[in-house]
Amino acid sequence: MKVWIDFDPQKVDIRYLLEHLETSGFETEAVSVPAGNTEEILRHAAGADAVVAAMERWDEEKLAAVEGKVRFIQKYGTGLDTIDLKAAGRHGIAVANVPGANAASVAEVALLHILNVGRKFVPCVSGVKNGIWPATITGTELDGKTVGLMGFGRVARNLARMLKGFRVKILAYDPFISSVDDENVTLVKSAEMLFSESDIVSLHIPSTPETKGSIDASLFGLMKKGSYLINTCRGDVVNEADLVSALKSGRIAAAGLDVLTHEPPEEGNELMKMDNVFISSHMGAESFESGVRSQKIMAENIEDFFRGKMPASVRNAEFLKCDSACEN
To answer: Catalytic residue at 282?
Structure first.
């Protein structure tokens, strides 16, 4: 069995995954292909039984092209918005993710952005490097603020844990939960209430047809003047044009973003030109520890699947046309 891993081992440390698979008898090919290069993606996938996917998009066309060859797609990460789960199932391809392995890592980056938008740490550091001394920029403390968590899954819960060291009020809204076991977190009844009552809103929702573009002017208009927006989940849940308008008007004082609608950012993206927007390169999940945790789960998923056992993190089992390799 052969596994194509869409990552460059010179840029991403995937030693554990490679060693584990090869020890288990799999042939591996670790080659990173640009997400938009369909021809190269299909060329590498056509020679593989399993794919470890990065940010390339697996739509009906690509999935149909590899039907009968690729039987398992393992996403490196949690989000599956780049993979058509139903279409994969129709073409007999199981799709798994890595739930929870990078939750703490992403939460740390959310906290970094929260601290930075308030204290303006990045402009101060860059100012010193550019010869400005003192490069002091008056900011705002986190203590005393209300932090709203839009979505209360694994990342948000880790962020709530990390925020306990500050004197903050934590609100959360998640339509899929009715109670929390954290006495420091208060559930609110609507997104509108969360946005209107928070000084800082941190987004932790998946990208789905229902959530794409849902964080828009209707919610920005409810925010306190001078509040902050943090996004470490998926870029396309935010209407970026509306965000630009809210930032220009001063309704939102600053935004910390680890994700964008288009990655890398398109030429002319206004957010890239704004002094009150701080953008990191979708690096939230990239820690050594989360990498090892993720690779362990991925290796076990691939091994289990080809031994005839359906991994628990397969997300399209209900759509899957099973054969003898996946009936268990």
So the answer is: yes
